[in-house]
Amino acid sequence: MSLCGHRAGIPLSRREMLQRSGTGFGALALQAMLAREAAGKTKAPPLPGKAKRVIFLFMHGGPSTVDLFDPKPLLKRDNGKPFPLKAPRITSHKSKNLLLKSPWSCQQHGQSGAQVSELLPSIASIADDLCFVKSMHCSNSRHGGALLELHTGSDTFTRPSMGSWINYGLGSENENLPGFITINPSGSHGGAGAWSSAFLPAKYSGTRIGGKNGEMKVPFIDNPLQDRGKQRKELDLLASFNQEHLALRGADSELESRIASYELAFKMQMEVPGVQDVSSEPDHIKKLYGADVDPTKSFGEQCLMARRFSEAGVRFVQATHRYWDSHGNLRKEHEKLSAEMDKPVAGLILDLKQRGLLDETLVLWGGEFGRTPTAQGSDGRDHNPHGFTMFMAGGGIKAGTVYGSTDDYGYYAKDKPVHFNDLHATILHLMGIDHEQFTYRYAGRDFRLTDVEGKVVRGILS
Question: How many domains would you assign to the chain?
Answer without folding.
Answer: 1
